[in-house]
Write a structure and sequence with these properties.
globular; 11 helices; binds pantoate; 9 strands
């Protein structure tokens, strides 16, 4: 069932709760692919009812980013959801989410601001305010849908860690279920932004998973020094790649590592054909 208003979702969820049913939420920005499908399938397997939200959230895009050209494919998204057994596809307009006039600066809207320590690094360093927008919209979605479980992909690992922190710090009664990265056979992590890449760009984009896999192999062979592990990446990088960051951080609190261990995630962001791609691997 495709639903556009907060009122309609609330009404339906209230009915389900009355019947004692559990509700899973899969928050998305649409342009659904096999990565999203894996979250949806997990929710359907775990919960009595599943809501998928499809909302290109304007407040998590920074000036100059791809808000206008972000792929919007609601018809196909709805079909994927219906075929998968989703109960509600919630696709609100920006006006429905943020009100008349949609004045969305934080002078006019109550924001949920995650801690600076978590947002001043990795993607948050170049995407200033991005995670404020993410936490604000996810908090709103939690309030609207009141899910028992919410499903997020590990591809956006910094987002996942920040959302877990938000749920913990604000005592939000939802359990976050992390879901593994889904990759093409080539190793490329699925992302809605892969649509911006040419065929050649997709080949060049394999550099992210190649770097990460090689680091993991070196780590498994006994190299633990982060400087040495970082240096192994440079032979993969050529003029078609613009590296934004390659960092080793703690998987729970994002603290920087000098010596890699079993709690380490290696994070990478790199541009190919000016498309910003991210990936990560757990050591
Ligand atoms: O990961 C995403 O697609 C978005 O950041 C999310 C969680 C749906 C919030 O808009």
């Amino acid at each position: 069932m495709l639903v556009h208003t907060i009122e309609e979702v609330r009404k339906q969820v209230k009915e389900w709760k009355k019947q004692g049913l559990t509700v899973g939420l899969v928050p998305t920005m649409g342009a659904l692919h096999a990565g999203h499908k894996s979250l949806i399938d997990k929710s359907i397997a775990k919960c009595d009812k599943t809501v998928v939200s499809v909302f290109v959230n304007p407040i998590q895009f920074c000036p100059g980013e791809d808000l206008d050209k972000y792929p919007r494919t609601l018809e196909a998204d709805e079909k994927l959801c219906t075929d998968s057994g989703v109960d509600i596809v919630f696709a609100p307009s920006p006006k429905e989410m943020y009100g008349e006039g949609t004045i969305m600066s934080n002078d006019f809207l109550t924001y949920v601001i995650p801690p600076f320590f978590y947002t001043n690094k990795l993607c948050g360093k170049s995407r200033v305010g991005h995670f404020d927008g993410v936490c604000t919209v996810v908090n709103k979605l939690f309030n609207i849908v009141q899910p028992d479980f919410a499903f997020f992909g590990e591809k956006d690992r910094q987002q996942l860690i920040i959302l877990k922190k938000m749920v913990h710090d604000l005592n939000i009664p939802v359990e976050i279920i992390p879901c593994p990265i889904v990759r093409e056979e080539s190793g490329l992590a699925l992302s809605s932004r892969n649509k911006y890449l040419s065929e050649n760009g997709k080949k060049e984009a394999l550099v992210l998973s190649k770097i990460l896999n090689n680091i993991k192999t070196c780590y498994n062979k006994g190299i633990k020094d982060v400087k040495a592990l970082t240096e192994t990446a440079y032979s993969f990088i050529n003029d078609n790649h613009s590296l934004e960051y390659l960092e080793f951080r703690d998987k729970d609190n994002l603290e920087e590592k000098e010596i890699a261990d079993g709690n380490t995630i290696v994070f990478i962001a790199l541009r190919v054909e000016n498309v910003r791609l991210i990936d990560n691997i757990e050591l």
